[in-house]
Structure formats: C-alpha cells, structure tokens
Amino acid sequence: MPNTDTKISVLFVCLGNICRSPMAEAVFAHTVKQHDLSEHFIKIDSAGTAGYHVGEKPDSRSAATCKDHGVPVNHRAQKVISRHYDEFDYLLCMDESNLEDLQRKKPAGSKAVVSLFGDFDPQGDRIIRDPYYGAIDGFEHNFKQVTRASEGFLKHLGLLA
C-alpha cells in the first residue's frame, strides 16, 4: 500500500484499448473525482497489448454505456510500450491473456505492479471479458465490474474506508 502522500499512476490494459480499458480508465477517474481523491493521482490512462486500434476513439457501445451512467470518456487508443512500466505504478489488466503478455514484457528491475483489475472486485468477478463481439449487455456488465473494482482498488490503496 503506497504512502497516501505519494502521487499514484495507473494504466488500465486490455487487448485493443477500445472497449474495456478505456471504460475502466473513465470509470476509475470518475470514481476518484467523486470521492475527491484526485490529489492522490498523477496519471490515469489506458492502453492495449495490441496495436490494432491505435489512434481510434473507444468503441461507441463502450462510450455510450459510460455516457448513460454520467461518466465522461476522452481517450484515443494506444499500445503498451516499455516506458509505461516506468511511467505507471500499476498496470491493471482485464484478463489473463493481458496479464501474461504484460508480465512477459515487463523489463527487469521494473517496480510497476502488474495485476488483474478484477482482483479488486469485492464480488470476486476477476475477469473482465471482452464484450466486442457481443451485445450491449456485455458492456453494461463490464461497467458494473469496473465500477466495483474501482472502489475496491481505492480501498486497497488505503484511500477509502
């Protein structure tokens, strides 16, 4: 658990950085703001393990789900690169495949914590599944997961009781 005086940086990671991770980024940033905890964070961002969508806006269904819940989304897809391991304290993945990719690419000596974002879900829903090829209800399910995990992560950091 970090010292609460230290500014924390968090990168949310999925495969293409257009559905799950930009949603997680937006929801987490919104949750941080709602709890008046912005002074504890230096950077909140998201990226993908693959570069399929670099420069693109988030999937319209992901953005619409966030908007329906009053959560603003402002992101352009990017790919995880080696400097992210130095820039961010936490790289939080959506599924085991993302986790394995990031652990394999993690530079020696990096102090970044690489883990599943779902590990912080108090309901134990560890895997945030890719909703891309499914219906809108998958995006709604993801939204609920990342909302719970956002609160759980803030509790893990000692910023919420």
UniProtKB/TrEMBL annotation:
Active site, renumbered: 14, 20, 130
Occurrences of domain Phosphotyrosine protein phosphatase I (ranges): 8-156
Subcellular localization(s) per the UniProt record: Cytoplasm
CC terms in the record's Gene Ontology section: cytoplasm
Entry similarity comment: Belongs to the low molecular weight phosphotyrosine protein phosphatase family.
Keyword NAD set for record: no
Keywords assigned by UniProt, alphabetized: Cytoplasm, Hydrolase, Protein phosphatase
Provenance organism: Absidia glauca (Pin mould)
Main location per the UniProt record: cytoplasm
Reaction equations catalysed: O-phospho-L-tyrosyl-[protein] + H2O = L-tyrosyl-[protein] + phosphate
Name the record gives this protein: Phosphotyrosine protein phosphatase I domain-containing protein
A single GO molecular function term of this UniProt record: non-membrane spanning protein tyrosine phosphatase activity
